[in-house]
Amino acid sequence: MTAPTTGPSASTPQATTSMTMAAALNTALGDALAADEDVLLIGEDIGTLGGVFRITDGLKDRFGGRRVIDSPLAESGIVGTAVGMAYAGMRPVCEIQFDGFVFPAFDQLVAQVARLHYRTGGKVRMPLVIRIPFGGGIGAVEHHSESPEAYFAHTPGLRVVTVADPQDAYSTMRAAIDCDDPVVLLEPKRRYWGKGEVDPTVTADLSTARVLRQGRNATLVAYGPLVVTALEAAVAAEDDGIDLEVIDLRSLAPLDRDTVAASVRRTGRLIVAHEAPGNVSVSSEVIISVIEDCFEHLEAAPERVTGYDVPYPPAALEEHHLPGIDRILDAVDRTLGRRSSREAA
Predict the structure, then answer these.
(1) What are phi and psi of 90, to 5 degrees?
(2) Which DSSP symbol is given to 111?
(3) Which of 117, 143, 144, 297 is catalytic?
(4) Which of 24, 126, 288, 345 is the most buried (most CB within 10 A)?
(5) How far apart are CA 93 and CA 232, in angstroms?
């Protein structure tokens, strides 16, 4: 194994720097490779090409082909190889090229990776990260715009986290690589090109939600690609005198019930939004957690705004499938007892 690159590089911010989410992830991976020679990357086209979204661009040149590994087109092989690497004391980071491609590796993830620590009585750790670009909004073909998070959040033994902005992408990636548990890290592909400030000294944990905007009339919970949409909906709601509190869940497993419940106790209302279908979803779990934890504080039935319970549609129809500001504000109106489009229909 090659020695880690030392010293500052052109892609490593030494202070707060404005960059895209894609650049923040690239920087986090580069910094992790430089800091620990046991960290390595494996995936399809991640080396010479730099990945289809260029998240690993330039890393093979810096760290060599033994640490940035171009794999065959076989997700089961990628994850299976990473299990052996983790057994040997390495910290592999696997890239699944698109969300819909993770299913060939489903057996390894839920039947092996998630269980090995428990199965061995704590003797074996699985410090590996599974990076999955997820969600829609890029006009892609079938199997390139999935939201498979509920499958993995349902699996004991896996941590499932999302990111929503460049700073959180950098900090969460570093925390995931340092974690001794297997982490499924979901990256919202349509937000790769959004820019924000990144401070490499800011740390993140893998189990807490973030209150991004305080409000008093209703709690709006989102994660991943819909966090930006939720914040835009909160700004639009101000025109009607509605003050929304916005929470980025960040961690889907474990779920930060305390932060959500504390917010609902203040606002009395809950709306949950995500791109995945609503049936047996993360929104279902968030809503039932609030009912269990603070039912007496609810002033209206919780609402959820999700993708429809159909296979992901063709690109020409995805704008009708994905939750947007109007659908979110319609749900807000229902919780506030205001006339909504559903009632008008």
Answers:
(1) -85, 170
(2) I
(3) 144
(4) 24
(5) 33
Amino acid letter for position 341: S
Question: Residue 208: CB partners within 8 Å, gap ≥ 6?
Answer: 250, 251, 256, 259
Which pair of structure tokens corresponds to residue 165? 């902005």
> CA–CA distance from 82 to each of 15, 17, 174 (Å)?
33, 32, 18
| One-letter amino acid of 43 | G
Bridge partners (DSSP) of residue 210 are: 248
Tokens of 320: 């009708």
What tens-digit pLDDT sequence spans the chain (345 residues)?
333 333 334 445 568 999 999 999 999 999 999 999 999 999 999 999 999 999 999 999 999 999 999 999 999 999 999 999 999 999 999 999 999 999 999 999 999 999 999 999 999 999 999 999 999 999 999 999 999 999 999 999 999 999 999 999 999 999 999 999 999 999 999 999 999 999 999 999 999 999 999 999 999 999 999 999 999 999 999 999 999 999 999 999 999 999 999 999 999 999 999 999 999 999 999 999 999 999 999 999 999 999 999 999 999 999 999 999 999 999 999 999 987 656 655
Amino acid, single-letter form, for residue 143: H
Distance CA 145, CA 158 (A): 22
Residue 98 φ then ψ, to 5°: -140, 155
* The pairing of beta strand 218-222 with beta strand 270-277: parallel
Query: Is 144 designated active site?
Result: yes
Predicted TM-score of the model (pTM): 0.92
The three-class DSSP label of residue 314 is coil
CB hemisphere CA count around 302 (13 angstroms): 27
- CB atoms inside a 10 Å sphere around CB 278: 17
